[in-house]
Amino acid sequence: MRKKTLIQNAPTAKSAAKKKVRTFSASDTENLMLEAMAEYHGFSKSATITNLIKKEFWRVFPHGTPKVPLSDNARVKGPHHETE
């Protein structure tokens, strides 16, 4: 059975410095997939989820968003970006 999770008033990057416990919904198979990925990379399941989210976020929004701005010292590179 899946649990439902609501995320309301998502924090901005500045207020997100303090980490909070979150929950998520996953089937047994999805949880086994997560465990396998975490073991492969040598991370906890939590760190694996966080790293996958960050990787996908920066792939989709390479220049950040209004709530999650690009860091001043970030390097943006690739064929679709102005800065190398």
Count of helical stretches: 2
The radius of gyration over CA amounts to: 16 Å
Tally the beta strands: 0
On the 0-100 scale, what is the average pLDDT? 80
Q: For the report, how would you describe the main beta sheet? A: none
Along the chain, the helix and strand elements come as HH
Q: State the low-pLDDT regions, or none.
A: 1-9
Structural class: mainly alpha
Coarse morphology: elongated
Distance between the termini: 46 Å
- What percentage of amino acids are in beta strands? under 5%
Structure description:
By secondary structure, the chain is mostly helical. It is built from 2 helices and no strands. It is elongated, with a radius of gyration of 16 Å. The N and C termini lie far apart (46 Å).
List the helices and strands and how they pair.
Layout: H1 28-41, H2 45-60
Helix pairs in contact: 1-2
Task: Kindly summarize this structure in a few lines.
The chain has helices at residues 28-41, 45-60. By secondary structure, it is mainly alpha-helical.
